[in-house]
Amino acid sequence: MAAAVHKLLHPIEHHRSKEENSQNNQSSSAHDRQDSAMDRARDEEKRSLAQWQDLKTPLEPGQIDEHPDRKMVGHSSDVLRQDDFELIKTLGTGTFARVWLVRVKNARNGDESKVFALKILRKVDVIRLKQVEHVRNERNVLAAVAGHPFITTMVASFQDHDSLYMLLDYCPGGEVFSYLRRARRFNEPTSQFYAAEIVLILEFLHEREGVAYRDLKPENILIDSEGHLKLVDFGFAKKVENRETYTLCGTPEYLAPEVIRNTGHGTAVDWWAFGILVYEFLVGQPPFWDQNPMKIYEQIVEGRVRFPSAMSPEARDLISGLCTVDTSKRLGNIKGGAGAVKAHPWFRNIDWDALYHRKVNGPIVPHLRGPADTRNFDEYEPESANREPYTQEMRDKWDDFFHDF
């Protein structure tokens, strides 16, 4: 009765109240619909991750060249979150990143064994260490090359308030470096097989993407479950095309003379490093070495490679052509580009088309208990809980730089 009287005495207030309730209900309903649409999109994205794991076939070069938004892999996701993944084990750490073995949470039947590598980069650390441009380059190059048979596949990237994420395929075999150290050196057929896969990588990066990788070494090459290579860690990769760049980056034993001299460098630095890598495959150590890095640099600039007597003449000729100080005469950088390297007699037994399409297993096939086997990776300390916060002030200044994620 009191409520009825109140309505009669305050009709406008009652009408306004009804309107506000209606508006609140509409707003709540719209919010629920938005949440529901977001959940459906996330579920659809997670299903597509599982589908890609089932297919995992190399894309043709023309397909890789498509915009990442039109490919099954390499895109930026607006819906994925760290909460969508179960963090299983740390696979590696760096100064501003940690890589985890992960699986999708609440996976459908049959998808529970499908795992990925999730690279997590804290925005605060990326900014503090002045790595913003390197991180952006890495993400964008990986997006552009996603689907190549011998480059780690960035399935998707995403971000949240304080972190950047790159979801990558998992290579359970671990680093080529570990196998090389255990074997001391690779025999010639093994060296030829893996060197040929690297030629295909460099051919694609240089001639289709105009990208210099700039950090080729055994530690940055992983072995997948079928014994094929996967090139990882694109932090130094840069789209240079026909221009020169002057940034000093790389690993001392693998630096090209023009990098040390700071005379400007381009994609030719990767062919020099490739020659060093082939030498290390066959001999067990790089040709230029000293405990003092300055001595290494002096040897590199001089450019005299000393070969063991047991090395085949074809291997010597290939390495000599690649490790030529004059970039205008360096194999891979001369007329014919990667084609001249592929035509070298040392590669005469390579079927390049069969190799690209992974029609044969690699010579080193890791022994695995299952797709989530981590025996080929080291143990790491837990991540520190005391992390510097990513403040609103930092967000206002820097978040636009991370929009590609």
Automatic annotation (TrEMBL):
InterPro entries from the UniProt entry: AGC-kinase_C, Kinase-like_dom_sf, Prot_kinase_dom, Protein_kinase_ATP_BS, Ser/Thr_kinase_AS
Q: What class of enzyme is it?
A: transferase
Question: Can the keyword Protease be found in this entry's annotation?
Answer: no
Question: Which keywords fit this entry according to its UniProt record?
Answer: ATP-binding, Kinase, Nucleotide-binding, Serine/threonine-protein kinase, Transferase
Q: Please give the PROSITE patterns that the UniProt record associates with this protein.
A: AGC_KINASE_CTER (PS51285), PROTEIN_KINASE_ATP (PS00107), PROTEIN_KINASE_DOM (PS50011), PROTEIN_KINASE_ST (PS00108)
Q: Which residues form a coiled coil?
A: none
**Gene Ontology cellular-component terms listed:** cAMP-dependent protein kinase complex; cytosol
Which Pfam families does the protein's record reference?
Pkinase
Q: Where is the AGC-kinase C-terminal domain?
A: 348-405
Q: Which CDD domains match?
A: STKc_PKA_like
Record carries keyword Transferase: yes
Recorded E.C. number(s)?
Answer: 2.7.11.11
Q: Which residues bind ATP?
A: K119
Determine the domain of life of the protein's source: Eukaryota
Q: Which GO terms describe its molecular function?
A: ATP binding; cAMP-dependent protein kinase activity
Q: Where is the composition biased (Basic and acidic residues)?
A: 10-21, 30-48
Q: Which SUPFAM superfamilies match?
A: Protein kinase-like (PK-like)
Reaction catalysed by this chain?
L-seryl-[protein] + ATP = O-phospho-L-seryl-[protein] + ADP + H(+); L-threonyl-[protein] + ATP = O-phospho-L-threonyl-[protein] + ADP + H(+)
Q: What is this protein called?
A: cAMP-dependent protein kinase
- Species name for this entry? Trematosphaeria pertusa
Q: Kindly list the organism's lineage.
A: Eukaryota, Fungi, Dikarya, Ascomycota, Pezizomycotina
